[in-house]
TrEMBL record, chains A, B:
Pfam families: 2-ph_phosp. Its cofactor is Mg(2+). The keyword Hydrolase applies. Belongs to the ComB family. InterPro entries: ComB-like (IPR005238), ComB-like_sf (IPR036702). It comes from the Bacteria. This is Probable 2-phosphosulfolactate phosphatase. GO terms for molecular function: 2-phosphosulfolactate phosphatase activity; magnesium ion binding; sulfopyruvate decarboxylase activity. Keywords: Hydrolase, Magnesium.
Amino acid sequence: MQKRNLEVCLTPVLLPLYNIENSIVVVIDIFRATSSICYGIANGAEAIIPVAKVEECLSYKDQNCLLAAERDGQVVEGFDFGNSPFAYTEEKVKGKTIVLTTTNGTYAIDESRKRAHQVIVGSFINLDAICNYLRNQDKDILLLCAGWKNRFNLEDTLFAGAVVTQLGLDGFELDDAAYAAEDLYLQAKEDLAGYTSKASHGKRMQRLNLQEDIKFCLNHNLTDAIPVLVNDKLVKM
Amino acid sequence: MQKRNLEVCLTPVLLPLYNIENSIVVVIDIFRATSSICYGIANGAEAIIPVAKVEECLSYKDQNCLLAAERDGQVVEGFDFGNSPFAYTEEKVKGKTIVLTTTNGTYAIDESRKRAHQVIVGSFINLDAICNYLRNQDKDILLLCAGWKNRFNLEDTLFAGAVVTQLGLDGFELDDAAYAAEDLYLQAKEDLAGYTSKASHGKRMQRLNLQEDIKFCLNHNLTDAIPVLVNDKLVKM
């Protein structure tokens, strides 16, 4: 039987190097976009519309949507909220459509939807659900780390490593980045919070007093919900 | 005292994201370009001229140079040799100027020389010399992995990790990629050959029967020579 490709794209800049026409792309932006998207979908948001630019987000004004915009770790002035997971609770998002733009995560979604067979959204809070789903599809897999402003980051790579570790080597052909991600995860998994505290974005969030957000985003398996991109909207699979 | 930046650029595609005007860039292409360049300079080559394209290499014909060209792991037809380190012995290269183009390494040199304060060439065979030199300069450091066709690769990242490990954290501000490289190296260092055997380029070289080249390129500290780019030529520092 032919092996399925299991690859890790360490930043969106590298995406053009990958053939993803036959792939499920898992977009990963642990601190905090994809963690919040998973939480919002789990809490009954009808849809989350990821857009790359702040202006695009603004164009949804008066359409009865919640508008969420984050840049450089902070809520953009004039918006309902940014990408803190605590803004995506059931009481705030149930039945609502949210239009969201973030520094890294929504850009990664935007880039991958143009070519991928399917785009789903992953985070530690739906890790097992993501792995169970991927295991049962007959498609190649690309784990796409959103990174920080197109650079490599630790926390997204660790999540990619967690997925590689769960899926195992049987039946998959890994690229070098998948091996590296797996080994970093195995080294970090006993103390993810400690390990990611040296990450540049972790430090940035500590400076912005976002420790509670960090802690939340490292929770495992709070939900089975998988956000999937259908047309231009992320909805519950 | 202000800390110096110690960063790792995991593939040349990411180079535009880094400010390197005040940096020493260490170009890394372990299998095999930079290992062979270090070995050639150590063995008395007068200069090695890295060029990005095969045609550019050919234009040096009749100028009394050795012409070396490698693509996809093999010597390009019609050339004196490629980038196997065994072609860079003293008897072959002493006093000679070599014009070299390779799949990844020379591209990385070409991209970095446009902006960097200084470009030097690193490999396991001159690891200690590289680290001693870097330690004593008052410049930022960028470890530039040539990768494989612009993708991340394990062996270049491991060498970057070896440098980070030797330099230590004191006095340096690491980026996330530097932390990751260090941790991968610490995990792999007891058995670099075993670890890199899972690397895609390692497998590719095994298929091409280049095991002896791999083994050679993982030797540590065969020389103190450091190739440095002066104008368009790599010469002994």
